[in-house]
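fwd from M.: "can u put these together and see what the complex looks like"

so here's what she sent:
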Amino acid sequence: MPETATQDTIVAISTPPGRGGIGIVRLSGRQALGITTKLLALETPLEPKRARFEHLNDEAGQRIDDTVVTFFAAPHSYTGEDVIEIAAHGSPVVLEWIVRRACTLGARPAHAGEFTERAFFRGRIDLTQAEAVRDLIDAQTIEQARVAAEQVGGSLAKRIRPCKEDLVALIALLEAGIDFAEDDIDVAPSALIEARLHSVLSPLESLLATFAYGRILREGVRIAIIGRPNAGKSSLFNALAERERAIVTPIAGTTRDIVTERVSIGGIPVELMDTAGLRESEDFVEQLGIARSREALAEADLVLFIVDLERGISEEEQATIASLEGRPHLVIGNKIDLAPLPTSSLALIPTSANTGEGLDHLRDALLGQLRGSQNMSADGLLTNLRQRDAVTRAVEALHRAIEAVHASTPHEMLLLDIYDALRGLDDLTGSTTADEILGLIFSKFCIGK
Ligand SMILES: Nc1nc2c(ncn2[C@@H]2O[C@H](COP(=O)(O)OP(=O)(O)O)[C@@H](O)[C@H]2O)c(=O)[nH]1
Ligand SMILES: [Mg+2]
């Protein structure tokens, strides 16, 4: 960030647009205190971390609102600069008036994400923490919020730190070896170097494995419920959605369009899709519905294939189940209240959409599929592609470095790979990330954060 930009004092409404019980205007920068003193015509100086009640008057001295003002002195503030928060009643006209007035007094409107950007440039937070602030704001489930909050607290940065330190130590060792090579000082033996590279590589590889779950947690998954007419798809859909969303009747071909509902399963945001039954149909509208079912099937991250235990599994259904091999899916035997599970080799999850039997088991099986085999703890997950790419770069560079050791490559060359691994980790935390990329990341924030 150019030095002049950080001299500016920025101002923005930090609460969501529209009317509310309260609305907050935030200022950050050197002039924040001076501007606020004039804006509110303060008679005594504000004290750090103390909220104070103050009237807000317009230029003519007419009262337009009452406010509570809080001062966070640098460097103990969100941005690391002097920050002032003015909480008024949430009237957009009053909040906008405060912003305009602050600008007349020397502030300028903040760009999207500029408060967080300042926190990053002042070293208050690293890039993974900044991204997590956005994830926290966007969280749709408490589980998402929990993971984001841990990352705001620096869980990912903490997980990476020892790896970075080890790499720096190894670089120092090798650089020293090179510098003194002519003086016959012992260069580190290959086995030792390799062991040290492995000790950095393996935690990074486990971290990389967290991405699948991290992404699911962040972005959610699409689950399509398919099966032949009357198997109980809509009934199961309603049971999982915990409300009567789709129409259920004993008439085959009732569901004709895709019905979707957002639900949370174990904290993972799920878009559940109920579909028309897969079958040959003469009815034009039903045919369209069936075509859409096939599209939903193609798009889904996970498929729930429902069979009707009372009617048994047809050959056509066997074929559909076989075609699901290789992609995440679960086969469900519904109407267990009417008929027992068949003694087949198929792994069916027994449920009854009507009595609720087996639904908890189904949810567990779903979570198991989504989480994969790993036992995922929430600390230090990779949650976006940028993070994954940075760690991948480090992991690949370490693999090259290990090969180089095997091939007895000169240490000058080996060092290039180790530096590259370090750059991957620096990219993750943002210490070496290019300005354009940073700009992209922060522009996705809302104004006022
Ligand atoms: N006894 C019993 N009936 C069910 C069960 N699930 C669905 N049904 C009934 O089966 C019929 C078809 O259900 P529906 O959900 O519309 O099936 P869809 O065509 O696959 O969407 C309805 O009469 C439901 O009440 C179940 O688990 N047990
Ligand atoms: Mg239906």
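replying to her w this: Residues 42 and 257 are 62 Å apart (CA to CA).
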